[in-house]
Amino acid sequence: MRTPRLSQKTTQQIKQIYQALDYEALGPIYCDEGGDAFWEDRREPCQKMGITIGKVLKARLPPQGRSLYVGAGVPEIPVLLMERLELNRTVCPYNLRQAEVDILNQAGEGSGLSFCYGSAETVTGMFDHLWIVSVLNDPEEFPNLSVLFSYGRADPLAFDTAAFSHEREAGILLFANCMAKLTTPGLLTISVEEIPWIVNWCETHKHSYHIDPKTYPTALVGDPVCFIRIE
Ligand SMILES: C[S@@+](CC[C@H](N)C(=O)[O-])C[C@H]1O[C@@H](n2cnc3c(N)ncnc32)[C@H](O)[C@@H]1O
User: Separation of 2 CA from ligand 1 center, angstroms?
Assistant: First the structure.
């Protein structure tokens, strides 16, 4: 599949939003300490890698559909703008961090992008594209799940197995509630670490799926993303 380009208008808007972001306020949201240095280092890769994924997605999505983004933040800006400006699609980005949503909306004022504070599970209507990238390794929402499955740093003696079981059920439910909003055939953009959750859902709900073997690096979490077609 040939990778399309993004128009100058889109790349310009992406640049403008990244320039307008309040990195000082974003620092403590993303890092316990060293937020300034973190954003100094990561803001450029966020744009570059986001644009790369945006181009790849442009070739895979039809115009005028709807996309649901679970846990969308700074790295998702280029892809969201690509969808709106290049494909005239509706995008619904959700995030559970109110402070981050406010910063993103302030920076994106006038661009037509609007982030929503709350769970993506609450959105109404159907979508032909679902984006779930690095959500279950969120240390705030899923502390035990993330420490075990993403970071591999669980202490076998102190690990809270009851809390883990509870989070695993919450993760299964989150995927089920979001997948219920996906029309079929539909497209998923997902981090590689989260593939088992989708495979579990597809097998439980008797849907066939095709995982594109090519993966794309991301700028913040370090977990690459891939595309899955759900039939
Ligand atoms: C580890 S961050 C990843 C952010 C971004 N996707 C990235 O790759 O850098 C996880 C994000 O998922 C969000 N999140 C977790 N559960 C969610 C839910 N049910 N609905 C919307 N966002 C959710 C959290 O608020 C957080 O912003």
Answer: 30
